[in-house]
Write a structure and sequence with these properties.
Length: 299
């Protein structure tokens, strides 16, 4: 082989699909899922070997600075889905249907789910809700679009719940969540996010379903776990949910680099010669002599 022929870097990982998540559950392999909202984070997560990237409507809070997820629009979602799709090769990409993009009519829900796939480059969509969403989920699945369900604490309903509160703490509400999970599986969901419910209920649902459960505050027995990536890397300091875990402190780490930059610019240390570009000396001499020739004679 000639020394300058290019080695083709082949990624040994296979593209993750909705179907491969079900196979992972059957093989008792835990599913890993995190949110991402832009190209650099998607590239990083993809290279890290993560299974699923969720472009969650949590972007409203951690990226756009809203109080909750309700103001997030289809346009916001599409903008971020496209950026994530450009950064990821192997992860299954799931796009969240934002508040009021699927509740008004089934037709609108199918159209918006289709936009996340067609324009946003997603491989599946996620929508919040239980039994009341069965007909919508069936219609989206019938259109050929894989759907991930989301029950328990569904942040788009915080006003109904009276805040970000754990759901299913009474036997009656727990049974309702278990029934919802069964109905979503029946409706055709390929996986279900279980958010902020008692661990015992997360376990019961995970054992009862053939499709995988992805927990966020739903205990250790779910088939996979999801967290908001900004919580994991310490890039959101307004609050830290009890069920999340911060593995690094990016604000501290990045902040120290930014302070160093500010100091170096103020002290005239940056840029130094190695970060600067110089022209050839003879060209520069020419510039000076041309400038001199243009100077008024009698100055
Ligand atoms: O929007 C989101 O990030 C989510 C996860 C928290 C599951 O729905």
């Amino acid at each position: 082989m000639s020394t300058n022929s290019k080695q083709i870097q082949q990624d040994p990982r296979e593209k993750i699909t909705a179907r491969s998540l079900i196979q992972k559950k059957q093989a008792r392999q835990k599913i890993t899922m995190l949110t991402a909202y832009d190209y650099p984070m998607a590239s990083l997560l993809d290279r890290s070997g993560l299974d699923v990237i969720l472009v969650g409507d949590s972007l409203g809070m951690v990226v756009l600075g809203y109080e909750n997820t309700l103001p997030v629009t289809m346009d916001d979602m599409l903008h971020h889905c496209k950026a994530v799709a450009r950064g990821s090769k192997n992860c299954l990409l799931v796009g969240d249907l934002p508040f009021m993009s699927f509740q008004v009519s089934i037709e609108e829900a199918v159209r918006n789910a289709g936009r996340l796939m067609q324009e946003g480059g997603m491989g599946a969509v996620k929508l919040e809700g239980g039994r009341e969403r069965v007909a919508t989920i069936k219609a989206i699945v019938d259109a050929g679009i894989p759907v991930m369900g989301h029950i328990g604490l569904t942040p788009q309903s915080i006003h109904k719940f009276g805040g970000f509160k754990t759901q299913g703490k009474t036997s009656e509400s727990a049974i309702r969540i278990i029934e919802d999970a069964r109905m979503l599986q029946e409706a055709g969901c390929f996986a279900i996010v279980l958010e902020s419910i008692p661990s015992q209920i997360g376990k019961l649902i995970s054992e009862a379903l053939q499709i995988p459960t992805i927990g966020i505050g739903a205990g250790m027995e779910c088939d996979g776990q999801v967290l908001v990536v900004h919580d994991v890397v310490g890039m959101f300091d307004r609050f830290q949910p009890k069920f999340s875990k911060q593995y690094v402190n990016a604000f501290e780490f990045l902040g120290s680099g930014i302070s160093q930059y500010i100091n170096e610019v103020r002290q005239g240390v940056f840029p130094a010669a190695k970060e600067s570009v110089f022209m050839a000396q003879d060209e520069y001499v020419e510039v000076l002599s041309k400038l001199r020739a243009e100077e008024p004679k009698n100055r």
